Amino acid sequence: MAPDESKAKSLRFDRLPAFRHFARFTGRTQSQDHIRPLHEYVTCRLVLEGGFLPSELEPRPPLRVDEARPLPRVVYDPSQMTRSEATVIGGLKKKNVDIGVTKAGIGPVLAVSCKGMTGAVRNLTNRLEETIGECTNIHIGYPTLVFGYLFLMRANREGCGVASTDVVVDRTGRPVEGVVRFHQALSAMTGRLGVRNDASRYEAIAMAMIEVSGRRSGELLTDFPESDSTIHFERFFDTLYRRYDERYVVSAPQLARRTRRHEWSVDSPALGATVLRDLDYRVRRGD
Fold this sequence. Notes:
Helices cover about 30% and strands about 15% of the residues. By secondary structure, the chain is α/β, with parallel strands linked by helices. Strands 1-6-7-8-9 form a five-stranded mixed sheet, with helices on both faces. Strands 2-3 form a two-stranded antiparallel sheet. Strands 4-5 form a two-stranded antiparallel sheet. The two termini are about 20 Å apart. The model has no long low-confidence stretch (mean pLDDT about 90).
């Protein structure tokens, strides 16, 4: 494996480069460039850990699958990568989602909305209204779709040169009141278990606070949300997979050949030793 290829893989497969980019981005957030590497990380993780085919994802990750026996092999292929958003016909209007998984003959089965806030804590109320509307619209159209909401927030610290309106963590190291209320509101919007549950609830939500300065720039804030929070980042992907398997594999065994998540061959070219050492999750290998 060439050194530059290994570096490219690490940038897209591991969360730290995406979090660092978000923490240090200085351009206009309207361009979505501050969150774009997170999209790449999520799509790659849905393949490597989640077992979905790269061809089922939009946007597509820089991966392809070669059919092999006994298990398919994942190959790193930057030419396959796209940046298009997935389109879902919601119950109220058409909606573009950041990341979508579509199964042939079945339709959209899983989606992830990625959002990031670099400052202006006062806008969190507006974020909640947008979040509820997006979730309800999509679940009305596709009640079985597993929907996740991944929210990054810069952990701007008081006294570190940030405007008072952008402070997220006060001088004592605790989140400000607006952030605590936002966490409580998001916690009440997650946990949708079945297709007849509240359409305004997401199957999984994660709120990730990202350090922005010093040697820990780009790392998760360890103090908040607390480890037992229902919307802690470490629970997010496992919850998505669990809800997906319940609805599309366990509850529909006649479709299992098409819906069961794949396992990858241990000799897949994309799974080099350097890449695996950097990952913050376990690849779904067939060993």
